[in-house]
Amino acid sequence: MTSQAEAAPAKLDAAVLKVAGVVVLGAIMSILDITVVSVALPTFQTEFGATYAQVAWTMTGYTLALATVIPLTGWAADRFGTKRLYMAALLLFTIGSLLCSTADSIGQLVGYRVLQGLGGGMLMPLGMTIMTRAAGPERIGRLMAVLGIPMLLGPIGGPILGGWLIDVASWHWIFLINLPIGAAALVYAWWALEKDSPEPSESFDFLGMLMLSPGLASFLFGVSSLPEEGSFGATKVWLPMLLGGLLVVAFVFYSFKPQHPLLDLRLLRNRNLTVATVTLAVFTIAFMGAGLLFPSYFLQIRGESTLSAGLLMAPQGIGAMVTMPIAGMLADKIPVGRTVPFALLLIAAGFFTFTQVGTDTSYMLLCGSLFVMGLGMGGTMMPIMTSALKTLTNHEVARGSTLLNILQQIAGSVGTAMMSVILTNQLNESAVIPGMTNPANGEPVSEAGAAIAAQHNPQIAQQLPPDLLERGLQFAADSFGTTFWVGFVLTLATLIPAFFLPRKAQAAVEADGAPATPIVMH
What we know:
Elements lengths: L3 H4 L6 H25 L2 H8 L3 H4 L1 H24 L1 H20 L4 H30 L4 H29 L4 H4 L1 H15 L13 H24 L5 H20 L16 H21 L1 H8 L5 H7 L1 H18 L8 H15 L8 H16 L2 H10 L3 H35 L3 E6 L6 E3 H8 L3 H6 L2 H28 L1 H4 L24
Antiparallel strand pairs: 1-2
């Protein structure tokens, strides 16, 4: 008897690819926006006369909005239908982008970024749900490879596009560019997505929302304040983290009581989903946290422009583009437990080079290491997601993808804050220059801080002795190397949960929840 998995077409057909195009377009807009804005922070400081801590909230506010709205996505998809909700999210994101371009103050910009995040937060989990339902579980590996395209284009194209738009036009265009993309995505979604039948029978878990959404937002607010405050002992850090953590823990205990909780933690009874989410969380802490340090090294230690730093990061994306389609096909045929560990070892091998960085490390070596890391990236994140979603029923996919996105958001925020604090503390150990203070805040200036500032400010470079600048820059490079060691160790630690990923063929689950006959592999 031929199994369903065997009978399934080997390739994604035109109808599925049409749907995938909608989702990829929306995801590109959302992910690209994050990396484009990250390179504009110095520009915001100049334009609005704000401190770095103030402009950083243009990123943090967006993140908090994502964390608040993602838990609602699973219920809303069942209640209103994925097509209508996806189009509403696209519209909200596009309107938010337009408003961001009109901001007259840093406060307005942060507020509009929150609005943008409310739409952007729904795009990825909804996109995963739409694509998985369209292709079926037996082809989810290939599907995840398609969804990985925006995840690659964002880190590659964001810094390049952002630097170029700011140089040739103005910062307003990093938001205005979303308007034509958003309009095209809306028209495409209206044409390509089939109207689905919402299931409004499930009651909304209002009590769960009062615990989970504010809890996540409060916890991530505390985590995001850590780089600015520099210590867990700061009230702005520990108090919101504690309050948010208590609300999230209360939700965990509560969530098993209602029939339809806001976030269905019962899904974690599925061993494959649990192992995959733990693996993904550890990997995200390691890679997303350290990932922001790569361009910072090129900017601060090597004195490269924003555009050049973006171009130097391109080998990583190219490497991922090579392996991601292959990994997607293999994930439908070979258990991910046999492939993901090898991909993680590639990432670790590339990572090791950055633990040894100095002020003049060969660009050829660094770009080659980024390419090797990219090869590993292409075989890691999407296969893990494939393993997580493959054994869920059609109805469970929306809630499963919501769970994955929440954990990724938390892990990414924790990783970013942790790496920022480690790097900042390392740099602060540099010797202080006697009699020199920062005019912005009156604080003493360290040798490392002065050397980094001198990379893009010739006036500072002329005021200080060459030997002091050389010593400070070397100290700063060593600080980056120490921080990269943390990312390297965490990447190796990901091998522990990855060891428990499925090593035997998984049974795809049909829409009615009955397992399809698996392909037996020997």
